[in-house]
Amino acid sequence: MSAPISKSRRRGPSRIRRAAVESVSGLPPQFWWLWTSTLVNRLGAFVATFLALYLTVERGYSASYAGLVGALYGLGGVVSSVGAGVLTDRLGRRPTMLIGQVSTAASVALLGFMTDPVAIAVVAGLVGMATNASRPAVQAMMADIVAPEDRVRAFSLNYWAINLGFAFSSTAAGLIAEHGYLALFLGEATLVLACALVVFFKLPESRPEAGGAADDPASTGASAAGAGRVSMLTVLRDGRFMTVVGLNLLLALLFQQAYVSMPVSMGRAGFSSADFGLVIAVNGVLIVLLQIPVTRFIEHRSPAVLLVGSALLAGYGFGMTALAGSVALYAVAVAVWTLGEIINSPTQMGLVVRLSPLHGRGRYQGMYALSWSVASLAAPLVGGTIIDHYGPDVLWAGCAAVGTVAALGYGLLLRRLPGKAAPSGGTATVAGNRAESAGQGPADAAPSADERAGTGRAEIPSNS
What we know:
The chain has helices spanning 2-24, 29-43, 47-58, 63-90, 93-113, 117-133, 135-145, 151-177, 181-202, 232-237, 239-256, 261-268, 273-298, 303-319, 327-354, 361-390, 392-415, 449-452; strands at residues 426-430, 433-438. It is mostly helical.
């Protein structure tokens, strides 16, 4: 018996190593520099996490004022999502990222020195605008430089970096704050500048050249024509894409309840802040541990099934909160909706890219980012109002209903989503970077065998 056991033991680590190598192999060097910039940026995401605590504890302002500042921060993100999307297409991915990151560093540092309540509110709005400005550019560049069949994996790895950085920054921020909150502001500014340096020195522009391939063979967007035809009005008129944005808004409203309504609900039930911290930590731990292995499992499966399933997991995971009477049951509920989040994020991002025309990726990504910004602004109002007037159980039951509606929406939408021919193996180079697989058929071509099997080549799917 000893020989088979020892072989099995040897095969176990070898299989894990092979799986890890396959998860990160085949992606271009530019992606890893972009991934590094994301990680560095999230390692320094101190201020948004501790802003309310800073205003109420350090500055002595009321909870209402802290809520107003938080709303202005969210409003800044709403404004910049669309504007940054336009800049991403007009100026380019790299300049937009640099503008957003340098502006973030300057505004965050400035916020740390503000003492007047009006000045704090105004600068907080500017921080919200600057922080969200680079998102459409990051996602558009990722779509530019990663081949279609690898995008689900790439978006998953990027999402993993976001959560890994957030887990570190949430822990480090508490320790840094003990030495003064100004250190938080200056520390975030320093790390965002480091992120900008990575972009400046290591990432070339990836925007498709004007007059290049007019139609993106990987896109099924309503306007896969030339750059001149793509405007924000084009995006708004793209009914299929706007349906995806609307469905994502529903899910984003659910996920935001974890940081707004769940702590309030637990507090009303007699649980402590430490209890909530333990419960919400399950979310970060599971994402860090499971995002990559789950992506290996889902990347060759039908996006329709994945998005329907993730919506149901999210809705009923939050719905389970109504039945939670202990920290353990709250943690189980968090684990359920976290699995939905892990599945949804890379799948949804791949779908957004697929529906985006090549020369309009920035605008489309900006509109997609807008759904998250609107959710971060609306979720506290919706959740708080329902809890105050009807109680938390009604809110959680409503979350289950919203998840069901989103699942039905994805099922109906993706049932009619056209396939595209399989890549022939060539690549098209745009502005010096590998952008798309060449030699593919038109967007309405019959689906390939890979697509009928639900592979990542049919190409499907970022808070901060």
